[in-house]
Design a protein that fits this description.
With 62 residues, this protein is an alpha+beta fold. The termini are far apart.
Length: 62
């Protein structure tokens, strides 16, 4: 959560991918400007690792 400096209140932290609130004490990942909850971690990994994706039998030749 982030503290709103003007009012001294905490702002809600939302998962960039699903929009659900990330509550205090809950683990999350911050990557490339996105805050991502544990449930969305596999989707984040797929997106971030997409350039490394290969299909067996169709590997790019060097």
């Amino acid at each position: 959560m982030y503290r709103d400096k003007r009012r001294g209140r905490r702002q809600t932290l939302l998962c960039t991918l699903c929009g659900q609130e990330i509550t205090e004490g809950e683990e999350y990942w911050f990557c490339s400007g996105a805050s991502v909850c544990a449930a969305c971690l596999p989707d984040l990994a797929r997106r971030e690792l997409a350039p490394c994706r290969e299909i067996r039998g169709r590997e790019a030749g060097l």
